[in-house]
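Below is how a single chain appears once it has passed through the pipeline. First comes the sequence as given, then the structure the pipeline wrote out for it. We keep one example in the README because the format questions we get most often are answered faster by looking than by reading.
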Amino acid sequence: MFKDDFMQYDLAISKKQSVLFRDLGVMDYKECWDMQERFFNETASQKLLNRNLPEEEQIATKDHLFFVEHPHVYTLGKSGDISHLLLDDEALKNVDAKYYAINRGGDITYHGPGQIVGYPIFDLDHFFTDIHKYLRYLEEAIILTLREYGIEAGRIDGLTGVWLDKDDPQRARKIAALGVKCSRWVTMHGFAFNVNSNLDYFKNIIPCGITDKAVTSMHLELDYVPSIEDVKQILKEKIAFVFGITYA
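Resulting structure:
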């Protein structure tokens, strides 16, 4: 479906959808997860109520996008393998990290300072009802953001996320991971994009269960530390472009 030139993509979005955006700064993972659940359940519940209401009485659902940085934390998706976490409880305390088994897809990943974590809580009925397409659009926004910094990135067939040197099995490395939950076409969780991440924390896991690929961060690829606020602003604009949205 996707081609190298995004302008050739077949976007099925004909009007601008308004999305409520909020940068949460630094927030504890569990606190943020609970917040996501509240918005997710509110949207899903309203969709159920609307089914039984005349059109003129239905209440439109809202779409949200949150950016956040988390203190050191490891999260394991529903299909993940706990053996991919290489630390026991005591070792987690020693590296000042927490661990949660959560309700997204995918395996284990790391979140921490210097990483942009994005949580779109979208009603995909406002866009398109195709979860694979949704993931590819999130990837594309990150790919386009990296291109602004002269970093060429792409996808690897069969693997979710954004990769550098994607065509070289020996050098391929992941710079952004994705993992989502979708129910009644409402999404939660999202992506983790390494801007200035301490990659030593990835040594404590088998990221996404992939044993033969490395992880990287923008600051290593650029040989300087980019402003995370600048990257956020570009990424926010690219998400708006890809999904055809405006921010409220």
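Residues 29 and 70 are 6 Å apart (CA to CA).

See the next section for the split statistics.
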